Structures are given as C-alpha cells and as structure tokens.
Amino acid sequence: MNRRYRKTIIAGNWKMNKTLSETRAFADELKPLLGKPKWCEVVLCVPYVNIPAAVRLFKENRVAIGAENCHFESHGAYTGEVSVEMLKELGVKYVIIGHSERRQYYNETDFTVNKKVHAALEGGLYPIVCVGESLEQRELGVTMDLISYQVKAALAGVPADKMRHVVIAYEPLWAIGTGKTATAEQAGEVCEAIRAVIRKLYGARVARSVTIQYGGSMNAKNAAELLAQPDVDGGLIGGAALKAPDFVEIVNAANQE
Fold this sequence. Notes:
Elements: E1 9-13, H1 20-34, E2 41-45, H2 51-57, E3 64-67, H3 84-90, E4 94-97, H4 100-106, H5 110-122, E5 126-131, H6 135-139, H7 143-155, E6 167-170, H8 184-202, H9 204-207, E7 211-214, H10 223-227, E8 234-237, H11 244-254
Helix pairs in contact: 1-11, 5-7, 7-8
C-alpha cells in the first residue's frame, strides 16, 4: 500500500449470496466489529435486490455500496439488465466490471468491459475493473502479455482526468474460489506490471494515483502479507466477505496508519 498517492480500498463481492434477511443479520454482526475505518475505504458489492437495504444499513459505518455488474446502455429493450443510472439513484458508488465469472458464464468480452467502464464513469460510478489469467495461461508464461492487453482494452478511450475514479482488480482465475492464493510476491509483481501499463498510457502521476487491488482468495490470514506489497492497494474479497469476523480482519490489516 502507498497511501501517500492513492486510496486503499477493501471491497467485498457477495456474488449470488445473501437474501434480504441475511443482509440485515450480516449488518447486525458486522457494524459493531467494523466501526468507522479511518485509513481505508470499505465497500460491499451486493446483489441488486439487496442494494437499497445495504445503503441504509451500512450508512452509519461509512461503508460504500457497490453493484456486481451493470449494463452499458442507459435504457432500452435489455430484459433483466440494470443501468448505471438505476444504480446511481439507489445510492451505489462502485460497480464491478469484467469479473471472470461474468466473462466465463455470460460472455463478457474486452469490448463490452470497455463499454461498461465508459458507462460507469459517465454515470458517476467508480468501476472496479477485473483482469486476470487462467492457470494454463500462467504456465504458458503469457500472464504479463494478457494482463497488459486486458488493461489496455478496458481503458481504451478513457481520458486521464477520469482515471482517478478507476480501480483495477487483479484476480488470477486459478485463485478465485479455489482456496489457492498467489504468493505476495506474485501478486505484487502483477500489480506492479499493471501500474507500469497505466504509466505508459497516462504518465507517472496518473499511474501512482490508481488503486490496484488483489482479488484471488485474500483472507484474514494472508491479507497483511499481500497488502504489504507496495503496488497492492487493497482487495476484492469473495468468500471472506460473507463472514463478518473474517472481513473485519482484512479491513483491519488495511486500516493501518
């Protein structure tokens, strides 16, 4: 982490978990444990149906609420989709874009990811843009080439003055939901490479201002080691974000003066 230049962000991704009643129960458990973190921003990205309640329940703890996806159009004949404008009106601040599960199961492409990034920024949301390689791609030695391409594709056409609103999340596919985690050195190396790509695109000042998260099975036990890497500015947390004590431990690891 490097708070001198950029924000530390711990974001939970609930995926398709927790009903409304479970969201209320989670809030009752989390809020007294969490308090009001001073040195990092805490985000919970929840299912659409839980957003209004989450905005209300976590307001006093200053937890920002995010969505797990959005559409790139503002309105139209897109059955089942939700626009940035709809999310913004509900009080959403962040939106996850291009998660590997969206790419794998719902045919998200680098082209649609880019369109969603533009829609989010134009609508006043902060996109959390996910990039990452499969185990096969890592073993082939193409991790850095692939990550560079994904970052460039996601940010195509994004002006420099919008980059302070963009968060990049490095999520190696082989470490999502598997219990496997990149070593701190592996995570730091890729996050450093992502920042180098941004530096080439936008210059050093912009690059050092962008928050880059690690998102492959970060948990209460490994968070401090991962966050000690200079280019790892937070985490996009999956399974551990569903358990209040575990999530608070990760926040505490990031919430260091």
